TrEMBL record:
InterPro entries: Cellulose_synth (IPR005150), Nucleotide-diphossugar_trans (IPR029044). GO terms for cellular component: endomembrane system; membrane. The keyword Transferase applies. Keywords: Cell wall biogenesis/degradation, Glycosyltransferase, Membrane, Transferase, Transmembrane, Transmembrane helix. One of its GO terms (molecular function) is cellulose synthase (UDP-forming) activity. UDP-alpha-D-glucose binds at residues 110-111, 140. The active site is at residues 140, 458. This is Cellulose synthase-like protein G2. The gene is LOC111291936.
């Protein structure tokens, strides 16, 4: 290694910093004026007030909540940075540290086995010394199909890995490679390459067919048995995948990374803590076999799209200046199935394109579930690494296994050589470590390993790490290092968002509340970012319900809530509105988005707030009150081509649960009723133009809501296809609207 050349560079986005900070100052001045305007009304003498106090107070509260959310969000814009790495400057392969890859899968009926195995194969094909790469597949479904798939994947990888290495193939995921444009073969055009290519493609086809057939049979059987009880009640199964039975292969033995299948023990009497539980089992099992100092975590729906990510991450983990305080290197979640319009924001654009760069300039991005290279030792409680700690204390924390405690030593290398006697002993020990009762009376999930407290194990684990003083780094290179499958229909997306909102609010209203748990250990800006996300559901759902109903009910009843157009105060509101819209437009344009993206994002923000974020918040409150149990249903990864087509065309698919549709239809109806009712009222009852001027703000707001959500109106009235809003839902919403309109009018006065 040439010590004079850096392994990485950090670029500060100076232009964005100027824009962000000036915007933050201007916008806060406008908010201060708004607050002054609202408060001064409350100090007027009651007899001078022409407007009832309750609606005024309500709308003011919602404005304050939105302003608070806005304020917290400004922390992301404080110091955005991006990074470049130079993996070619890393030292020789012999000194690179080993890596364990953890891949989680849970349900073969929702997670197609071929896709899961593509993730496994792509991880095995990472550009890293083979003897230093170990892949662990956790199967929470405890399914034979997954085990069989893993064996088939291993067999196929025996041809695939040498092929990729010989020809420098970048797309290390075979499915993506064979269905892609076919231009990824370095400089090789020779006939030898072509012949080889054909051979491998054929092998891949065979692999694909076998796995698909097995899964088909499995799903039939599972359906017949009504439910896969096996997934909830079975002993631990750990298998080192290795199949030299094929004589032909034995002759030309290829060096392969270790592949281990792990299905932890499940018993109905034990809570299994979802993905965090699975990852903690992998942490222990892998300690018996490879105990690598670094871990790459992947979801089964996220394959490696470029084999160089490991070396890129090592540019930081290997840097002696950064490494001691660096917990993880995070890559963005990028998806292969995103359409140009992306009407449901399936790519979570603002998170990975903007906010994470902002966090990176503070002390690093949040842990994002998948695509991160994590230092194993960061997950141990700090005391475990202290000298002279006694064994009993370690056992209270990590559980009774002596072997595992030995593995906590930084330099401990297990003597796992497959098929030796000591390894069968280690394999037995690994089964004990994967048993459902192993964690009883230990601090797994509370102090060590991935956190159990809520379904968002990633957010919370990252938060706890940052709070302990660890840092993280965000790498977002031009070629996506990982590509995943995102949910691309309204129903799945809504379910996913509800789960996420529930997890966030659970943290917000717990002892982990970032505003209490963060401040002493995190910087102010970092605390603000953690709080922004945790409070996002609450701070969006309450105000958005408010803005969707209260000004409208007031319009209908002739109560003005905003200043007259001729009043200078009107410009405060106008400024805030225009400045928010322009800032988001700026952020979208500089990150390669289009005006259409901007329109879609505002719409989905409104829709999400009154559905998923509201239900998620409610769910978290019920959980807190002990009235519900936590659940983490894996998202559906089976593509429905008809639904996907609609998504690609940018047409809303309203085949979703009524609970997600009714609020939308209700709000639209209330808005239409108020505009119509309000306008008629002004025309009939008032003869001078004053009333018009007073109501412009509210008429405009309703109008804005209606045009932004025109897709809902279309789904309700104009479209007649299968994916439009069912008339039963429209009728139900009409009932709700009537109730809201009549109740609202009587309450507000
Ligand atoms: O009991 C479970 C449930 C899920 N999973 C796995 O967890 C992963 C994520 O689940 P998925 O259904 O894909 O949920 P998403 O909403 O897409 O996941 C997002 O949200 C999760 C919770 O915050 C993060 O862990 C993920 O990385 C992030 O992509 C998948 O590989 C699942 O197989 C398990 O292993 N066991
Ligand atoms: Mn997923």
């Amino acid at each position: 290694m040439d010590k004079t050349l850096p392994l990485h560079l950090c670029h500060v986005h100076n232009f964005s910093i100027i824009i962000n900070r000036s915007y933050a100052i201007l916008h806060s001045i406008a908010i201060a004026f708004l607050i002054y305007y609202r408060v001064s009304f409350l100090f007027q003498e009651t007899k001078n007030r022409t407007i009832p106090t309750l609606p005024w107070l309500l709308i003011f509260t919602f404005e304050l909540l939105l302003s608070l959310a806005w304020l917290l969000r400004q922390a992301y814009g404080w110091r955005p940075v991006s990074r470049t790495v130079f993996p070619e400057r890393l030292p020789g392969d012999d000194i690179l540290p080993a890596i364990d890859v953890f891949i989680c899968t849970a349900d073969p009926s929702k997670e197609p086995t071929v896709e899961v195995m593509n993730t496994v194969i792509s991880a095995m094909a990472l550009d890293y010394p083979l003897e230093k790469l170990h892949v662990y597949l956790s199967d929470d479904g405890g399914s034979d199909v997954t085990l069989l798939g893993a064996k088939e994947a291993w067999n196929f990888a025996r041809s695939w890995i040498p092929f990729c290495r010989r020809y420098g193939i970048k797309t290390s995921c075979p499915e993506a490679y064979f269905s892609g444009p076919g231009d990824d073969h370095g400089d090789f055009q020779c006939s030898e390459f072509k012949a080889e290519w054909r051979k491998i493609e054929k092998k891949y086809e065979t692999f694909r067919e076998r796995v698909t057939r097995a899964r088909g049979e499995h799903c039939k059987v599972a359906e017949a048995a009504a439910a896969t009880t096996n997934s909830r009640d079975h002993p631990a199964v750990i298998k080192v995948i290795q199949d030299y039975s094929n004589e032909e292969l034995q002759e030309d033995q290829v060096e392969m990374p270790l592949l281990v299948y792990v299905s932890r023990e499940k018993r109905p009497s034990h809570h299994h803590n979802f993905k965090a539980g699975a990852l903690n089992v992998l942490l222990r099992v892998s300690a018996m076999m490879s105990n690598s100092p670094y871990i790459l975590v992947l979801d089964c729906d996220m394959y490696c799209n470029d084999p160089t990510s490991a070396r890129q991450a090592m540019c930081y983990h290997f840097d002696p200046e950064i490494s001691p305080s660096l917990a993880f290197v995070q890559f963005p979640q990028t998806f292969r199935n995103i359409s140009e319009d992306d009407i449901y924001d399936s790519q979570i654009r603002s998170l990975f394109k903007i906010h994470w760069h902002g966090l990176d300039g503070l002390r690093g991005p949040f842990l994002s579930g998948t695509n991160f290279y994590l230092k194993r030792a960061a997950l141990w409680d700090s005391f475990s690494t202290q000298e002279g700690i006694d064994l009993a204390a370690l056992k209270r924390s990590f559980g009774p296994s002596n072997e595992f405690i030995k593995a906590l030593g930084q330099d401990y290398k297990p003597t796992f050589i497959n098929d030796g006697e000591s390894s069968s002993m280690l394999l037995e020990e690994a089964k004990v470590l994967a048993s459902s009762s192993y964690e009883n009376q230990t601090t797994w999930g509370t102090k060590v390993g991935f956190m159990y407290f809520c379904v968002l194990e990633d957010y919370l684990t990252g938060f706890v790490l940052h709070r302990k003083g660890w840092k993280s780094v965000y790498l977002n290179p031009p070629r996506p290092q990982f590509l995943g499958t995102s949910t691309t229909n309204f129903n799945d997306r809504s379910i996913q968002w509800t789960r996420c909102a529930s997890g966030l609010v659970e943290v917000a209203i717990s002892r982990f509340c970032p505003l209490i748990y963060g401040p002493l250990r995190l910087s102010l800006l970092q605390t603000m970012c953690y709080a922004e996300l945790a409070f996002l559901p609450l701070l969006s759902c309450l105000p958005l319900w408010g803005f969707a109903l209260i000004p409208q009910l007031c319009l209908l009843n002739g109560i003005p809530l905003y200043p007259e157009v001729s009043d200078p105060n009107f410009s405060i509101f106008l400024f805030i509105f225009v400045s928010s819209l322009s800032k988001s437009l700026y952020e979208i344009l500089i990150t390669g988005g289009r005006i259409r993206t901007w329109k879609n994002e505002w719409r989905i923000w409104m829709i999400k707030a009154v559905t998923c974020l509201s239900y998620g918040s409610l769910d978290a409150v019920l959980l807190k009150l002990g009235m519900r149990e936590a659940s983490f249903l894996p998202t559906n990864k089976v593509t429905d081509y008809e639904q996907f087509k609609l998504y690609e065309m940018g047409v809303f698919d309203f085949r979703a649960a009524t609970m997600f549709l009714a609020p939308l239809a209700t709000i639209i109806q209330v808005n239409v009723a108020s505009i119509v009712g309000g306008v008629v009222r002004i025309m009939v009852m008032e003869d001078n133009g004053d009333q018009w001027k007073k109501m412009v703000g509210q008429i405009f707001l309703s109008f804005y809501i209606l045009i932004t959500n025109y897709a809902v109106i279309e789904g309700m009235i104009i479209r007649k296809d299968k994916a439009s809003i069912p008339s039963s839902v429209t009728l139900l919403s009409a009932v709700f609207s009537v109730i809201i309109l009549s109740l609202g009018s009587s309450i507000l006065y």
